[in-house]
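Q: what sequence does this backbone want?
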């Protein structure tokens, strides 16, 4: 990439439109050059900061999860405050454990909204120092770039430093632009920007703009400039994070408060007591400050880590050996780590910053290495991929991070991009649409039935036949009455997501069918613009003689495995069936397991492990489990 970048020098001028009036593919590059010259900011610094915020995308004017606009992610979050915390949405019990009362979090009072911090009001400051109207900064990418350049120039001036042509002299201004309030985060953010400058980047944005940042491998910034920012030193003493991120210890409470209840997680001894098999990706749908206050409430729920959108800062709340209450499925909770990503949404068609994607990916790589978790989509789950525990809980399960999380980019950052693994006629496919070009219609972002803002998506829609006019496939768990799935942004009933693997059930023209929730599900997959790539994987099917086998939302032990004093947990099948002739991609082979930890006193905690073995499968949009004794496994 760096070599290619050197062949394409940054533009200082150029045509702003094509003959038919549309912006030329080089228009945005020219706007960066002009803004850099106008405000005396090195082009590489302006481009590097913008890349870390938005990867130069404009997102069609839509705000980010923290109310940030445009390529420079100028924040105007006043109208974007959530009215309720994420874990109070819907009917999901975050613990997902039938052995004790529901803990949904909605009994915790929502903290009062404090005045917004400076990092969520940068558009206001950009308007002041640039003289550009706030509406222009929100809606016009060129104006947004000028506003970002003005902010960087203002930061440099406030530090008493000259408007140097040398990018290395802008380290302190870049650190201030992050909005971070602690030294480690500001330093990590600035380091990331200068890493982009050193290595170079080139990509086509979501609006078709060809952008290039030529590599400058010799740039050596003055990192000591951060000392002049007067930032606090975060408490990282008990954190479990890689050295490449900025991490802070803000503990969730573990205290007894009467009537047999306590909050807001369980003590354990993982991985000695139980293996960690999953890492679950959430979004918070609350401000950063609200998120931190909620996780410190003993009557609320918990997760291991929170990640801040603007700069990628991480707070750890629960030790990795302990079990947080986050996924709505006790089996998954007991064997997972939960990551909440900051976002308070005006509508769910918002976007996530590159700074947060990068920090999150580093943390996940660290966790995967520590617990030997495979970097694939049956182990790195969205909250929307976690199954309901029983038929009664399916409809209440959460749907974050939703169809706008960029799984393809995320797994590229994880070092595991989704690439073809087999011949075009393979019996297994990995879902992988072009995120920017793939813009299926979603409804209900702001009002039921209303179309959402057009937006890139990592999900494909599934039909009952190879036609766009065919009904969407049904999810009898979500709609027991047998109604069709919908285009609702939170309806996961007919959706396959990037990185998920499915067995092929048929092909017809530009359409491919997969086995999904016990039925054939068709998606548009033309060879010229594929939305899936061929893959190799193990699959399972009912063993000979069985017409169908039950599917489960958790892998609990058989009744005979429970010792005296530990109540037997029911092994309840979901309403779906895996039928003869159908195949589903295999994940882990796991023993039935149940963590009994319903008391504050840990002396009575037990891990019950049975003889019954289960396979995890990619059964629909969510994963599921089947008994190993019911199926046979094949290579495809």
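A:
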């Amino acid at each position: 990439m760096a070599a290619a970048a050197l062949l394409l020098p940054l533009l200082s001028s150029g045509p702003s439109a094509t003959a038919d009036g549309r912006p030329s593919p080089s228009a945005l590059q020219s706007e960066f050059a002009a803004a850099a010259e106008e405000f005396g900011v090195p082009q590489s610094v302006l481009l590097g900061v913008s890349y870390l915020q938005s990867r130069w995308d404009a997102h069609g004017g839509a705000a980010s999860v923290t109310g940030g606009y445009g390529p420079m992610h100028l924040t105007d979050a006043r109208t974007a405050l959530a009215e309720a915390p994420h874990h109070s949405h819907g009917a999901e019990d975050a613990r997902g454990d039938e052995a004790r009362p529901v803990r949904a979090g909605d009994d915790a009072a929502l903290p009062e909204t404090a005045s917004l911090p400076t990092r969520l009001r940068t558009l206001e400051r950009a308007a002041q120092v640039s003289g550009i109207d706030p509406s222009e900064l929100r809606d016009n990418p060129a104006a947004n770039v000028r506003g970002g350049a003005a902010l960087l120039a203002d930061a440099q001036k406030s530090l008493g430093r000259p408007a140097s042509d040398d990018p290395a002299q802008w380290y302190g201004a870049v650190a201030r632009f992050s909005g971070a309030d602690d030294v480690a985060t500001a330093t990590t953010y600035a380091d990331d920007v200068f890493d982009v400058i050193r290595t170079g980047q080139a990509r086509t944005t979501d609006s078709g703009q060809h952008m290039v940042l030529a590599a400058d491998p010799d740039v050596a910034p003055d990192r000591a400039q951060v000392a002049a920012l007067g930032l606090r030193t975060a408490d990282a003493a008990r954190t479990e994070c890689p050295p490449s991120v900025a991490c802070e210890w803000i503990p969730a409470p573990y205290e007894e408060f009467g009537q047999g209840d306590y909050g807001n997680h369980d003590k354990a001894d993982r991985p000695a007591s139980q293996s960690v098999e999953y890492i679950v990706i959430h979004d918070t749908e609350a401000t950063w400050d609200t998120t931190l206050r909620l996780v410190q409430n003993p009557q609320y729920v918990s997760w291991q880590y929170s990640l801040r959108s603007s700069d990628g800062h991480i707070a750890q709340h629960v030790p990795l050996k302990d079990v947080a209450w986050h996924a709505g499925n006790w089996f998954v909770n007991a064997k997972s780590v939960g990551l909440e990503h900051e976002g308070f949404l005006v509508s769910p068609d918002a976007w996530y910053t590159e700074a947060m994607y990068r920090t999150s990916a580093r943390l996940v790589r660290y966790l995967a290495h520590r617990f030997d978790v495979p970097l694939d989509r049956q182990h790195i789950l969205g909250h929307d991929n976690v199954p309901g525990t029983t038929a009664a809980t399916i409809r209440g399960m959460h749907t974050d991070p939703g169809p706008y999380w960029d799984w393809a980019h995320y797994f590229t950052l994880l070092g595991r991009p989704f690439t073809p693994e087999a011949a075009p006629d393979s019996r297994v496919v990995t879902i992988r649409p072009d995120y920017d070009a793939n813009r299926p219609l979603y409804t209900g972002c702001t009002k039921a039935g209303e179309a959402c803002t057009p937006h890139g998506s990592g999900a494909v829609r599934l039909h009952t036949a190879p036609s766009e006019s065919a009904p969407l496939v049904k999810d009898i768990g979500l709609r027991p009455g047998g109604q069709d799935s919908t285009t609702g942004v939170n309806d996961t009933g007919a959706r396959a997501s990037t990185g998920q693997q499915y067995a092929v059930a048929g092909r017809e023209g530009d359409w491919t069918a997969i086995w999904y929730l016990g039925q054939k599900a068709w998606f548009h997959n033309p060879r010229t613009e594929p939305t899936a790539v061929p893959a190799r994987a193990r699959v399972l099917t009912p063993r000979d003689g069985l017409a169908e086998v039950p599917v489960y939302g958790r892998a609990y032990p058989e009744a005979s495995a429970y010792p005296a004093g530990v109540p037997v947990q029911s092994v309840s099948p979901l309403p779906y069936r895996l039928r003869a002739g159908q195949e589903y991609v295999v994940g882990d082979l796991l023993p039935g397991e149940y963590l009994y930890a319903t008391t504050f006193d840990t002396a009575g905690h037990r891990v019950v492990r049975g003889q019954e073995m289960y396979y995890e499968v990619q059964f629909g949009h969510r994963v599921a489990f089947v008994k190993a004794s019911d199926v046979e496994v094949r290579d495809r």
